[in-house]
Design brief:
The protein has 124 residues and is an alpha/beta fold. It has one domain: Methyltransferase, Cobalt-precorrin-4 Transmethylase, Domain 2, CATH 3.30.950. It contains 3 helices and 7 strands; from the N terminus they run βαβαβββαββ. Strands 1-6-7-3-2 form a 5-stranded mixed beta sheet. The longest helix has 13 residues. The chain is globular.
């Protein structure tokens, strides 16, 4: 069972303002699970990282706006979780948590990935 944590406004703002880099990535819930396996594999093979699924990003003229638009319930994320669990099982290297905020829409799925000792190659 994946734990659900209610976060504060400050924690939510921190997520929405994260710099996307080799350690952090934010994705819309509409992205295909197969596309995300490449990101998880890359984090596994590098230094690890945090992936947040349920954050929309729009941008014009170099300005980026992010919006919390998570899964309507935990079951809506089943397609993602089933593939992740098969390829990246919960354990020493992978953990998954649902994040909820009282004034925000839906649940964001946080995937915490540590560097693995084994090379992870994923071909969707």
């Amino acid at each position: 069972m994946i734990q659900t944590i209610v976060i504060t406004g400050e924690q939510k703002e921190k997520i929405l303002t994260l710099n996307e880099n080799h350690f952090n990535d934010l994705k819309s819930k509409d992205i295909s699970p197969a596309s995300l396996t490449k990101t998880i594999s890359a984090f596994s093979n590098a230094v690890g990282g945090e992936l947040y699924i349920g954050i929309d990003e729009t941008g014009n003229d170099g300005t980026v706006t992010r919006e919390w638009r998570g899964f309507s319930n935990e079951e809506e994320a089943n397609g993602h979780i089933q593939i992740f669990e098969k390829l990246f099982p919960v354990g020493d290297y992978y953990s998954y948590t649902f994040l909820a905020h009282p004034n925000s829409k839906g649940y964001v799925l946080q995937c915490s990935i540590k560097k693995t000792l084994h090379i992870r190659l994923v071909h969707p």
